[in-house]
């Protein structure tokens, strides 16, 4: 007879008790001790002007509730949409959360190709909903037809991560438009977290397809992940609905100040993006080709690598002070690595050559 389960001090909803927490491997991530290639971060901090603005604010107005000023207009110029099409969120994680909460009832479904960004599974779980959809094939190309066929009467949302994290898979504008057109009554959420690296966006489709929702972040190319700022681009009536869920002060002003400065002076991060994409990416791909290492390219600042033995490879890299991200099933035969500046990429290649020879 199994022992009786200890009664919980507080009973939570069934959907919650069935879940496990999303726990990225944050421990031991010391940027002073390790070369961090595991979280797709920017290799460079924001320029001194951004830090200056933050410290000025901290020295003066930190005791006042947030005042966001004209930031939405600024962001609208950057995104080529009016301010009424925009909503700021506490990281794009909050955007995922409030969008899914606004659309999905318990037992309903969202369609998404698997594996994708873990926050979608997590949020669906909290709502008692399922993420339904095909697996990526072995070569990680986008299974467009299979995704369409997975949409059913319970589907309330279609999610496209473009490019997909972790597989790096891109979705074409034609494929996005085909889904918007094929399912006019189902919102299509396109996650453009890596937009600044790819230069590809579907925002222009919004004027023809009111069922389009786009989300983006300041955590990747714009180098502000610790400040948590994301945004939603959607039709104004849907933005008004989302405002009912997001709290009026959920976004901190320090994040907005830093983002404002990053948009005002884009040359620093744009130069970094070009360096990663035009120099570091071709260099590491050439290196892997020469060493006959299997990898899966992407249009963003990360790639999947398939070594003969993942655990051994990650362990060797870690012992040599380099962190990469081992993947979970069904892609547990790979690790994900993000691009860094060229001297750091050189360091990675030197260490990886030693691993291959060991």
UniProtKB/TrEMBL annotation:
Catalytic activity as recorded in UniProt: L-histidinol phosphate + 2-oxoglutarate = 3-(imidazol-4-yl)-2-oxopropyl phosphate + L-glutamate
Cofactor(s), names only, from the UniProt record: pyridoxal 5'-phosphate
SUPFAM superfamilies referenced in this protein's UniProt entry, alphabetically: PLP-dependent transferases
CDD domains xref list: AAT_like
Pathway: Amino-acid biosynthesis; L-histidine biosynthesis; L-histidine from 5-phospho-alpha-D-ribose 1-diphosphate: step 7/9
Keywords: Amino-acid biosynthesis, Aminotransferase, Histidine biosynthesis, Pyridoxal phosphate, Transferase
InterPro entries for this protein: Aminotrans_II_pyridoxalP_BS, Aminotransferase_I/II_large, HistidinolP_aminotransfase, PyrdxlP-dep_Trfase, PyrdxlP-dep_Trfase_major, PyrdxlP-dep_Trfase_small
Enzyme class label: transferase
Record carries keyword Transcription: no
Annotated signal peptide: none
GO biological process: L-histidine biosynthetic process
Gene Ontology MF term list: histidinol-phosphate transaminase activity; pyridoxal phosphate binding
Record family assignment: Belongs to the class-II pyridoxal-phosphate-dependent aminotransferase family. Histidinol-phosphate aminotransferase subfamily.
Xref: PANTHER family: HISTIDINOL-PHOSPHATE AMINOTRANSFERASE, HISTIDINOL-PHOSPHATE AMINOTRANSFERASE 2
Protein's UniProt name: histidinol-phosphate transaminase
Species of the source: marine metagenome
